[in-house]
Amino acid sequence: MNRSRTAATPAPGSDGAAAFAALMAHQRSSEALGQIAGRLGWDQETVMPRGASEQRSVETAALEEVLHARRSDPRVGEWLARAEAPDAAGAANLREIARQHERAARVPAALASELARVISLAQGKWAAARAAEDTGAFLPVLSEVVALRREEAAAIARGGDLYDTLLQDYEPGTSAAAIETLFAELRPGLRALRDRALGAGKAPPVLKGRFAPEQQRALAQLIAERFGYDMARGRIDIAVHPFSSGSGDDVRITTRVDPQDPFNCIYSTVHEVGHAAYEQNVSPAYALSAIGHGASMGVHESQSRLYENQLARSRPFTAWLHAEMSRRFGDLGMDEAEFYGAVNRLQRGFIRTEADEVQYNLHVMLRFELERSLIDGSLAVGDLEEAWCVRFHEDFGHAVDRPSNGMLQDVHWSVGLFGYFPTYTLGNVYAGCLNAALRRDLPELDTALAQGDPSPATAWLGEKVQRHGALRGPAETIAHATGSAPTAAPLLSYLDDKFSGIYGL
């Protein structure tokens, strides 16, 4: 049903043109309603009263009923059958609408509504269980979420692989087998680099002190604006788990603040700005259309990881950050070189979002393998915590000490995002490719970064990637920007060079 035509521009008033116009008008309203649903999610994670969870779940389910009815509307199929795309953007819209319609039409409306209701409830139960360090309080609702997502995947797949089906929501065109192959290529090199670095006998210092939360937030906003985040069309709030929400002229992010760890706030903010800048920079011509957002979650993650790591954790940018933090917080107890090491320090921790660049993808691999087993039924929800702890010890060499440092640390499973986790590593691979290309095209970039100015890089990304939205598929988006198909080689080379330098390997 994916009928993305590229025929010549149809004559005004032709059936093909009329069908295309009707379809795009219908899609525009659906996209607008989807943005409202996203705003409800943002509200729930930031300022919603704790006692509103039950009512919000009903509201969310009601809105999902409307959205599902629009996405699966038989008229969409009829319009797709007749529509003629006027240009490449129109063809891409037909491609994406057809993909969405085919998936939605296979899911019963009652299932879509129930899934939305349970996910809304599960999010609150996860937050409460995480705060109480009580895995048992979360497992019953997680079992419901897993069962509903398996039922949804089965309806769409019609005999196909359930996990592969869920992956298409986040990274169209990929498969679990392809991801497994990529991870098998990455894991040995990452483990070896980690072990070499940690065994080198050279540990960068740890930043110590108390850093006032309000000053952290002020600095984070300054950095966000330097990375191109338009505060007139966005805002920064506090949440348990940092995230970005929205598109076009309303793109919001959240961060978190730890008085003892300013890097948490700074780099969580930069990461989410990468997502937000992508959405803000999509061409206005694509607003509220099927291609008016990122090409995939992997491509999305490539922006946030590149902003956070290759740019904001680079030696020249951290030199500027060292001076800025010294001015705001006083003596940091280390020079610029030591500060660069502190920002990029390898350490044995538990939290994915706080992990260093070398070990981050090992966190993702653990989650990919566990959630794949949950969806194929080989792992029961009741056995998930034990499986997590066993796998974590195998990969990281130390034991999980409490649930919030283990399977309760991420919000993703509570909101049904099975298939999302591997896109983080795909994003790192894509970021490695993009970084190599922008460094090739911008030989003077480090001079600007040393002045706290990442704009040459963010402008390059805006032109090469962000403004195009979902005009192209994920791999094609990266290939168009860099001139070659994405591979893991640039990422591995970048990591080896960077951490060999820091640890004297």
UniProtKB/TrEMBL annotation:
Asked whether the keyword Protease is assigned, the reply is yes
* Catalysed reaction, written as an equation: Release of a C-terminal amino acid with broad specificity, except for -Pro
Keywords in alphabetical order: Carboxypeptidase, Hydrolase, Metal-binding, Metalloprotease, Protease, Zinc
Q: What is its EC number?
A: 3.4.17.19
Q: Which residues form the active site?
A: E272 (proton donor/acceptor)
Positions contributing to Zn(2+) binding: H271, H275, E301
Spell out the molecular function terms from Gene Ontology. metal ion binding; metallocarboxypeptidase activity
Q: What does this protein do?
A: Broad specificity carboxypetidase that releases amino acids sequentially from the C-terminus, including neutral, aromatic, polar and basic residues.
Protein's name in the database = Metal-dependent carboxypeptidase
Q: Which organism is it from?
A: Profundibacterium mesophilum KAUST100406-0324
